[in-house]
Automatic annotation (TrEMBL):
Gene3D superfamilies for this protein: Tetratricopeptide repeat domain (1.25.40.10), YVTN repeat-like/Quinoprotein amine dehydrogenase (2.130.10.10)
Keyword Transport tagged: no
Stated name of the protein: Vacuolar protein sorting-associated protein 11 homolog
Entry annotated with the keyword Glycosyltransferase: no
Repeat positions for CHCR: 390-541, 559-764
Compartments, as annotated in UniProt: Endomembrane system; Vacuole membrane; Prevacuolar compartment membrane
Name of the gene this protein is made from: VPS11
Coiled coil residues, start to end: 807-841
Organism encoding this protein: Nicotiana attenuata (Coyote tobacco)
Domain RING-type stretches: 850-885
Amino acid sequence: MYQWRKFEFFEEKFSGKVADDITGKIQCCSSGKGRVVLGCDDGSASLLDRGLKFNYGFQAHSSSVLFLQQLKQRNFLVTVGEDEQISPQSSAVCLKIFDLDKMEPEGTSTSSPDCIQILRIFTNQFPEAKITSFLVLEEAPPLLLIAIGLDNGSIYCIQGDIARERIKRFKLQVDNHSDKSQASITGLGFRVDGQMLQLFAVTPNSVNLFNMHTQSPTRQTLDQIGSSVTSVAMTDRSEFIIGRPEAIYFYEVDGRGPCWAFEGEKKFLGWFRGYLLCVFADQRTGNNTFNVYDLKNRLIAHSIVVKEVSQMLCEWGNIILILEDKSTLCIGEKDMESKLDMLFKKNLYTVAINLVQSQQADAAATAEVLRKYGDHLYSKQDFDEAMAQYIDTIGHLEPSYVIQKFLDAQRIHNLTNYLEKLHEKGLASKDHTTLLLNCYTKLKDVEKLNEFIKSEDGVGEQKFDVETAIRVCRAANYHEHAMSVAKKAGRHEWYLKILLEDLGRYEEALQYISSLELSQAGVTVKEYGKILIEHKPAETVEILMRLCTEETELPKKGTSSSAFISMLPSPIDFLNIFVHYPQALLEFLEKYTSKVKDSSAQVEIHNTLLELYFSNDLDFPSISQYNIDESGNDLAHKPLKTVSNGRAIPVKKDVNNEKGRQERRGKGLTLLKSAWPSELEQPLYDVDLAIILCEMNDFKEGLLFLYEKMKLYKEVIACYMQVHDHEGLIACCKRLSDLGKGGDSSLWADLLKYFGELGEDCSKEVKEILTYIERDDILPPIVVLQTLAKNPCLTLSVTKDYIARKLERESQLIDEDRRAIEKYQEASSTMRKEIQDLRTNARIFQLSKCTACTFTLDLPAVHFMCMHSFHQRCLGDNEKECPECAPEYRAVLETKRSLEQSSKNPDQFFQLVQSSKDGFSVIADYFGKGIISKTSNGHAEALRSGSASSGNDF
């Protein structure tokens, strides 16, 4: 092992003396929870903070502290020491547990932690012997397992909640050697693996393993050679380490593991962050040496000559050595950057790589070391080996860093290798693909180019950016290579772009589209439909029909026809390819609607058809008509080609243009009606769009139909008014004003206003209108006269008979109202007299029979002011109201209450006013019932505020 290289990966953090407060000899120590605990031969335990600064101390035992251990899960300190012997039969050695979170006053100036338990280790069943080793395992708070090794080959175990003394004791026997020096337990170590608990035990003659998870622990001998000194440790992989003069041995559950031949007496062993710590006596020099071994990389990370070491422990991320003279030495590990800088200065790159990999550094740090190693090799012009290092950095090192180096060195072979690896790992960008293809071209390596582009292993599409490869191949006129890449990668749009734009092979493009799946074919037709319909219109339309209908393929089993149709592309998706071919679009949509009746895109299809039907002219100039024919002649001034019945025909002036327009409008009106059946509330097209199209193209028939279906009757009669069609106007009002059929009788008022402002003689029409106004009582006579007075061509004779009839009718109504008033006044006067009589005169009750049971009235009896009398027994508990009159009285009260409630709801009042033909009658009815006049100020204010906003409706 003397050939191992030595490095200074550790450095001295601080050194000094233990605090003067610690006067006794240090016999044991423990660390955890950010502090160090020292036990001395005077029975004291001292706690040191960071930097080994004295915090406080207390008397743990009266004589000596032999062993101690600080728990990690709870802030407890477990000690074993000697106290005063109570009786000759009892042992002076005891175990104590201190709660470091609870302090009890000991004097005026000092305090000590609370001792929560004291146990005698030795009993009659467990005879006293010298304790040689001590170890505590926290199983699950508050359970502890304490193993105490003795010089007679026994191990006393105490298990349970020791603080509450709920424990069990048992003994493990290792050796029954007559010579105690050969049977002493020199080391213990717990190994926890899930639910499995095992205990390593070392004697000078053997290494043993106890399975503690069984009911009675079983022993297994791992080795027939042990260790006579207390130099044991546990690794972070639960391996047990034993130090012997000739070597250091590692043990696992199945026996001895690796062995490292470090010579010298091993005084202390430890494990720190994957490093092996060892204090041994160097036989050649006679000095004590402290070494830190990196076993993975086979190097000595730190070595220092020290005095006699008393204790060794690890805390605060440092290694702490306490020497016999009470001096301390704290050693800490350098950061990774410092260690790597040290190695880089010595050009020890392989050691640096091994170091970062063994210490499980992140991939970025490893890549940085590899980069520096590559730079070192590059500076020595060892390009092949340098590239090997750079390839290992792929994914962490920016590729441009490597590419730039090898472009400058003109090492195109190395660069090609790097780019290939970059593509294999899927980390290549578009620029890397372009560069690699250019490298192949410059090297004229057609074989590699074919292998890269046309590889048959099916992985090629994952190696590079497909679009970049296609674009580079197209630019270099490698169309076949580009098509191969596009086809294998499933980039159908690029495959067709090459066929159509570069090669002009339209037939092949159509065949390729036909072979694609439904969704893929739809996408490609959307992209290149304009070119296809220009050069192969009939075939393109045929493909579209197959795509959009069930002719594409038969539905699979279990798939309904409607579900299958919903999976097909919609004709709306292909409207853009017909942008210069409106006649072809019209024919395509007509064919589709005749074949598919329940398409999910019915609304959009009908909207498009309506736009085509209502347009005045389907032929419009377009830039697509300017082209070059196959002979190279300029077609700029030739007529535009459209598609008709699948054939391209030249467009000429349509002499029957008006006839075609009327025919289309007829189809459009038919579509408007058929797509809005009576059972549907909304049509199968956009109503607003349809109205706009009719308005823009002056299609009155469509407008009239739409307005009537939407119940916009005022707009319907407005259409007749615009063209002054008086007969049609009156006929329309007769049809649309029928309230029984959902009409609007107020249309007659609009007609009257129209004729009143017409400015010409229309007596005949006005007389007819007045007939319907009078029949339905639509307008008051005064409003009729005011409206007709605006027409200077109308005379009073037009309204003479109407006014006479209305006046006679009003007179009759006035007489009826007067008679009703007199009747109500007479009834009111009678009621007032009756009320006055009840208040001033006595009532004589002369009934001799009970009103309820009709038997002779006897005492006790109850008489009511309504002249009804009852036996008291007939009334029961209800003596305050007459059973005969109470229902009527309650009805009156309920009516009054409902009227008062109505007065608190102004919205209902204004709604009645607005919906009534005669709003004044509603207001008068409210006043007559006494609702408005008897409301509170708040309610009156609410009505007044509401009337301010609705005053125009009275």
